[in-house]
Write a structure and sequence with these properties.
Pathway: Glycan biosynthesis; glycogen biosynthesis. By secondary structure, the protein is an alpha/beta fold. It is built from 12 helices and 28 strands.
Length: about 400
């Protein structure tokens, strides 16, 4: 059984998560962030999935109901949405990632899974969990932890594994100032991906023990994994061994799109001639809910009023009417009107850009109406006064910000 932890807000995404949890944030033109973990599970052959939700879960739950309702009980498949509902105590919602599993032990027990794959629902990557599960069984580990190879500087923001030559985890440190490096390396570290494989009964025992431990934060990374490292057998699994890559993907791809800059960059990277993430790989599809929409449409062919797009991704239902796009990603149903230009931009579903607007280096939230003649991305001080402008110059635009301009 795959159990996806999807309750977090993702506050560094600022207003993008004011109305939705981070796993429900749109990505790649058609998908939501959570679709990557769910698609990995489905493509890996896992047919029992649970999703734990908490923060502002309506958008996420609606997406899961629309896009992931094809599992059939008569085929021994199941898909459970598990909102925090004070099932253990009337005083507590989910207190941490481990508690989000602990509070649903009875539901998991009903399915009698032999192994549990615990997943974070807020990262972009393609991975075959079956290979990690096979390593877990072969090694006889109590827990197998999915790990990324990162630089020593990057490792300071992760939970870091110190491993021996056989990849057994000797110690686990959360966001260390001086991260331990991999065997045989002076500048590469193993960082936790927030992916764990357990034998189910062992996991249950650990969750019950942790729940009875005073002062625990009820978290896998802070409590459960460090305890097993000290008292059991924890083994690292290298992402490079199970990363799914098409022939066009040169390097293992994993992104935490947890800031506005990282989010914009990862989306716009998809417009590159050969992007780091291949969404066209039909051998490992990213499943999602697809709205029924007409094809994208480009109209007008006059000088200064030509519907055109260069190095851009344009989803169904979009109309580019006498406007120009350059390195832009348009989600479903976006409308861009005449004499406007959009560059280095991520426009979420049903954005409407009025005439003669110029948008550069922007992320525009769902349903925003950009007024006639609005210029963004040319005056840093003016942008920062009106919108959420990052240190790298990306402007996040919401309808509330537009309304304040009136």
């Amino acid at each position: 059984m795959a159990y996806v932890l999807a309750g977090g807000r993702g506050s560094r995404l600022m207003e993008l998560t004011d109305r939705r949890a981070k796993p429900a944030v749109y990505f790649g033109g058609k998908s939501r962030i959570i679709d990557f973990a769910l698609s990995n599970a489905l493509n890996s052959g896992i047919r029992r999935i649970g999703v734990a939700t908490q923060y502002k879960a309506h958008s996420l739950i609606r997406h899961l109901q629309h896009g992931w309702n094809f599992f059939r009980p008569e085929r021994n498949e199941s898909f459970d949405i598990l909102p925090a509902s004070q099932r253990v105590s009337e005083e507590h919602w989910y207190e941490g990632t481990a508690d989000a599993v602990y509070q649903n032990l009875d539901i998991i027990q009903d399915y009698e899974p032999r192994y549990m794959v615990i997943l974070a629902g807020d990262h972009i990557y393609k991975m075959d969990y079956e290979l990690m599960l096979q390593q877990h069984v072969d090694s006889g580990a109590d827990v197998t932890v999915g790990c990324l190879e990162v630089s020593k500087e990057e490792a300071k923001g992760f939970g870091v594994m110190h491993v021996d030559a056989e990849d057994r985890i000797i110690s686990f440190v959360e966001k260390p100032k001086d991260p331990p490096t991999m065997p045989g390396s002076t500048d590469r570290c193993l960082a936790s991906m927030g992916i764990y494989v357990f034998n189910t009964e062992f996991l249950f025992d650990q969750l019950r023990r942790d729940a009875a431990t005073p002062g625990s934060s009820r978290d896998f990374g802070k409590d459960i994994i460090p305890y097993i490292v000290k008292h059991g057998k924890a083994v690292a699994h290298h992402f490079s061994r199970s990363c799914v890559r098409s022939s066009s993907e040169a390097q293992p791809y994993w992104r935490d799109v947890g800031t506005v800059d990282a989010y914009a960059e990862a989306n716009l990277d998809l417009t590159d001639l050969v992007p780091g993430l291949d969404l066209y790989d039909q051998d490992w599809p990213i499943w999602t809910y697809s709205e029924i929409t007409p094809p994208a449409k480009f109209v007008h062919d006059e000088e200064g009023r030509r519907g055109q797009a260069i190095s851009s991704l344009v989803s169904g239902g979009c109309i580019v009417s006498g406007a120009s796009l350059k390195r832009a990603l348009l989600f479903t149903g976006v409308r861009i009107n005449s004499f406007s230009s959009v560059e280095n931009a991520v426009l979420l579903p049903y954005v409407d850009v009025a005439r003669s607007a110029r948008l550069t280096n922007v992320v525009v939230d769902r349903g925003v109406h950009i007024p006639t003649g609005l210029v963004v991305g040319e005056d840093p001080e003016e942008d920062a006064r009106r919108f959420r402008r990052s240190a790298s110059g990306t402007c996040l635009i919401t309808q509330a910000m537009i309304d304040r301009l009136a």
